[in-house]
Amino acid sequence: QVQLVESGGGLVQAGGSLRLSCAASLRDFINYNMGWFRQRPGQERELIAAKMWTGSRPHYADSVKGRFTVSRDNAKNTVLLQMDSLQHEDTAVYYCAAGMDWNDDPREWRFWGQGTQVTVST
């Protein structure tokens, strides 16, 4: 059974940092694109960062570009999201996802974690 398990969320002051981790029990992890989505209260789930299996340049949403960094460790089946200079607007539930074809439509991603809450206080 495929599982994606996120960790590292929590409460942080504006300007602070958090690092999210996603451990994936995917047999062919190296062949999957890995993405981080977030869902803010009252809003749709949005793709904020993705690290493709091809090793090409990662994708970032404009709202996080320059502040967030996505990386993956194929030996450990893990994908990380380093979040710096956090803002109140980054408050959301963050989800890890795996898919064969990546785009910003959540319906195109095959496997999902349960989500982890990130709260940024002002």
Instruction: Figure out the total of helices.
Output: 0
Instruction: Quote the beta fraction.
Output: over 45%
Report the major sheet.
7 strands, mixed
* Low-confidence parts: none
The helix content is: under 10%
- Overall number of strands: 11
**Radius of gyration from the alpha-carbon trace, in angstroms:** 13 Å
* Helix and strand pattern: EEEEEEEEEEE
Topology (SSEs and partners):
Layout: E1 4-7, E2 10-13, E3 18-24, E4 33-39, E5 46-51, E6 59-60, E7 68-73, E8 78-83, E9 92-99, E10 111-112, E11 116-121
Parallel strand pairs: 2-11
Antiparallel strand pairs: 1-3, 3-8, 4-5, 4-9, 5-6, 7-8, 9-10, 9-11
Descriptive account of the structure:
By secondary structure, the protein is an all-beta fold. It is built from no helices and eleven strands. The strands form two sheets. Strands 2, 4, 5, 6, 9, 10 and 11 form a seven-stranded mixed sheet that branches. A hairpin with a 6-residue loop joins strand 4 and strand 5. The N and C termini lie far apart (40 Å).
Features:
four-stranded antiparallel β-sheet; 122 residues; mainly beta; 0% helix
Provide a concise account of the structure shown.
With 122 residues, the protein is an all-beta fold.
